[in-house]
Give the backbone structure.
Amino acid sequence: MTAAESIELPEYLAYLKAHLDVRDERSVLATSPQLLALARNKRFLAQYLTEALANPARFQEGNGYAGPVIILGGGDGYMVRVIGWPAADQERRTPSNLGVHAYDGAARVAHNHNFSILSTCYHGPGYETELYEWEPLNGKEPQSGDKVALRYRGRQRLEQGRTIFYRAFKDAHVQYAPAAYSVTLNLLIHPAEEDLGDQYYFDVENSEIVLPGGLGNDRRIQLIQLAASLRDPSFVAPLAAIGEGHPSPRVRAAAFCAARA
C-alpha cells in the first residue's frame, strides 16, 4: 500500500476481520498502513455521520462513552472509533470546573490504559503527549502512594500521517490539549481478559501512583455495592468467588466486604 492510497471504512473493517489477531502485538502494528489509508480518506467520516444522523434517535445506540467518541465498528476484542479533542478554550467543563477530557498536563498526571491503542490524527493539528513506561512492582499489587519507576520516552505530537501505539498497562502518558480542535482515529485492542485489569494515574513529579481507575472495574464495584445493599444470601457465593479470584485488588476488596455485610 502506497503513502497516497486511501480506503473506505467497510474495506478497513473487512481487513481487520480477516487479518487482526488481538493477542499478537505484531499483528496489531501490521495494521498501521490500513489505519493511515483510512485516515487519508477525508470524506468517509462526514458520509458516515450524514447517514447516521438521518435517524438521530438511534445514533450511536449502545455507545457508553461520555463525550465526543464515535464507534465506527469492531469485532471480538477490538473497536474502531474516532474521538474529538477540543482546544483548551473549547473544552466542556463541569460546574465545579473539572474538564471532561484527559488533559492533565498542568497537573503533571499521567495515565495508562487497560487496553492497547493504535492511533492517528484524522483532522486538525493533533494533541501533544509525554510518554512514559513503567513496570509492575515485582508482583506487588499497586496501591495509591506507591513509588514507581517511570521511564521518560519523550514528547510527541499525534499529527496526521503518523501513528502512536500505546501498549496496554505498560505505557503511560500525559496528554495536552491541541492548538485547535482535532479528531483522532484509533484501533482499540481490548481482549476480554484485559478488561478485568485496572488502569492507573501517576504523579509524574514524584513518581508515584495517585490512584487506580478504569471504567470496567468502576462499574463492577458499583454493581457489587448494589448487590450488597440488597442483603440477599444468593449473592454470597458469587461475591466470595470474586473476592478470591478477581485480578484487581480494589474489586476483590469490595467483593470481600460485600460478602461479609
